[in-house]
Structure formats: structure tokens, C-alpha cells
């Protein structure tokens, strides 16, 4: 390897817990990979979210580490696109501030092995949702996998239009993809990731879209008040319907009865499978 293989893009907005967890993961990356990884953080927070001492340490240990704090808030989608425009790696990983990987598992080694041996257009990582709630001095942790059958996922890869009805992939953090000229549509808010997947899957070779092993999964902090989903809760049904119509009209798409039935079936299977795989832990 003699170039940047992977660019990790991190948009940040006023979520200290999430950024600290991601930085902990980054600092755990083995030395063998550090020269081939680019890390770019663009921070929309009210104040710089990373301490100067930690920034200096990251710059010292990663030659391709960059931290930018926006003077004015650019907004989530504009921030994502600005990050993408700066990426120099062969592959892009847009890692949201409320998702991180398990440090004890060598996910970076796994990603590099997949990139180098399989040369995928897209690598899809499994997602595990983490919700925490404190009741009577006890911390209840609900760990729920965002998971469904591989056959369903492959059906959606072959016909990505189905994602408009039910997003079985998860957040953008789940995708590592070859660098291209695709950006997120600033006209969308709720279905912005789905529309991006639609284009990405359509223009990729379905045989070169690979599913990551369940052992290497991302943790998504669900009860995070800085997430886009939480910001959009009010009027979310009408917003989703309007954006669905926008996407269908833009690409001249329609759903037939079979596709509608399939998407409903897939959504139900996703929810049931995820519930069956849910674990609850209680800590003091």
C-alpha cells in the first residue's frame, strides 16, 4: 500500500459522548494502518468539541488527520457533503457522531482485508442499536441488532428502490464505498440517506457489494437528542411521504403491488428479527 486507502469522515454537532467514543476507537487503530487512513472531522458544534491537547496527539500519530471547526453552523447535509469533497482515500466511510465500533475487535484490519482482497464497490457493516435508560438507580441497556435475512438484503441491493419504503441498511455509517462523485441531496432531510443509497446501489456492481460479517458491527447510540431523526420527529409522517414522492418523481419510479407487499414483509421481518435478537443488560 502506498496511498490513502480509507478516509473516515466524521461530522460533529454538540455530542461530546459520541465524539469521545469515536476518538477512543481511532486512537486504538494499530500503527500498521495509520499511514493509509485519512481522518477528517468537521465540527458544527457551538464550541470546539475536541480538546486541543487531544487534537495535537491525533495529529502527531496520524499524518492524515484534520479537524475543522465551522464558525457558523453549516447544517448536517451540507457538512456531510463538505466532508466528502475533501476525501482523498480510495474508500469513504462517513461515520456519524453517534456511531462507533467495538475497540476490542479489529474492525479496521477486517476492512482493509476486505478492501485489498475483494476490491468491493461497497462494504455493508451490521448495525447494533444501543438505548440506555436509568430507572431506580439502575442503568437499563437495550442492545438491538438492526438485522434481517441475507436474502432480503440481496433483494434490496438488486432493487434499491425498495429502500424508499423500508430502510433495512441503516444509517450512512453502515456503508464503506469506493470514492465517487456522489453527494447527498440537500433537498432531503429524512430520506436523504435512502436517496443516496438508491443512486449508489444503482451505479455499483451488485456482485461487488459485500455484506460484512456480524462479528464486526457498529454501535449506534439511539437515545441521542442530537440525531437528525430526533430533530425531525414533529411532522415526520408527512415529511417522509413528501420526500418519498420527491424521490419517485425525480427518478420516474413506481411501486407495483408485489414490491409494496415485499417491502411490507421485509419491514416486518426486520422488526421481528431485531426484537428476537434484543438483549437487555442492567448495571448499577
What would you note in describing this structure?
By secondary structure, this protein is α/β, with parallel strands linked by helices. The protein contains ten helices and twelve strands. The strands form two sheets. Strands 3-2-1-4-9-6-10 form a seven-stranded mixed β-sheet, with helices on both faces. The mean pLDDT is about 90. The N and C termini lie far apart (about 45 Å). A hairpin with a 2-residue loop joins β7 and β8 (about 140-145). The radius of gyration is 19 Å and the shape is globular. The longest helix is centred in the last third of the chain and has 20 residues, at about 255-275. It has one domain: Spore Coat Polysaccharide Biosynthesis Protein SpsA, Chain A, CATH 3.90.550.
How does the SSE layout of this entry go?
Blueprint: E1 6-12, H1 16-27, H2 31-34, E2 37-43, H3 52-61, E3 65-69, H4 76-86, E4 91-94, E5 99-101, H5 107-118, E6 122-124, E7 127-135, E8 138-146, H6 150-158, E9 175-178, H7 192-202, E10 209-211, E11 218-221, H8 228-231, H9 236-250, H10 257-276, E12 279-283
Parallel strand pairs: 1-2, 1-4, 2-3, 6-10, 7-11
Antiparallel strand pairs: 4-9, 5-11, 6-9, 7-8, 8-12
